[in-house]
From TrEMBL:
Transmembrane segments: none annotated. One of its GO terms (molecular function) is 2-oxoglutaramate amidase activity. NCBIfam families: PRK10438.1 (NF007757). This is Omega-amidase YafV. The lineage of its organism: Bacteria, Pseudomonadati, Bacteroidota, Bacteroidia, Bacteroidales. Its EC number is 3.5.1.3.
Amino acid sequence: MAEDLRISMIQSHIIWEDKEENLSYFGELLRRVSGRTDLAVLPETFSTGFSMNVEALADPMDGTTVATIKGWAERYKMAVAGSFIAREEGKYYNRAFFVTPDGEARYYDKRHLFRMAGEDRHFSAGDKPLVVRYKDWNICLQVCYDLRFPVWSRNVNNAYDLLIYVANWPEARKKAWKALLQARAIENMAYVCGVNRVGVDGKGFAFRGDSMIYDARGKKLADAGKRDETTRTCVLSKTDLEAFRTKFPAWKDADAFQL
């Protein structure tokens, strides 16, 4: 029988441009779910906030941020996902990470940069999707604005079982957040988890949270609610997903175009 997956959404505020404080704070939040989850998901740019001050805030791959995340995963025996501002070979990336308890780390660079905030002027875009194998699950990891582009998340031949979006999605666009998360679940016949921050950032933008998990039918399985800091854990059933895909194999009739 396929293994269930316990996934925890860490919905929190982010201390603006304060890497040290955020690493300390999120470390404590992860400690609290230790032993009760297989995978903890943090918001986008969890260690700094969604800042364009990349020269001051970016971390190299051998820096404090990656080392700290690997330490959490090993110490608390769970995978950890999220994104941070990375520097590599003179370029800056909004880099998502998926780190397992045994130290394996996989990375995805945000493909769609949010031009309305100038992200495209400060960061370099990624061009490779990521699917990670973890506990008998195939997991696709994407970042915030990627949610608006369904071709990029296209689930060809059920390549993934769970699609994760880490985000700093403003409250002003809450309707789009909810509608698109549900749509991605239905059209890709996969679980979808969206983890968003709360609070107000250093530029005055308010974030509502609304971190959610949907199943492949579009049914909401978990909702972290609005504006409050909270952690919600949900158990996902691979058996149920496979049964639905067998009973209703719409994925077999998908168009064959390629990216």
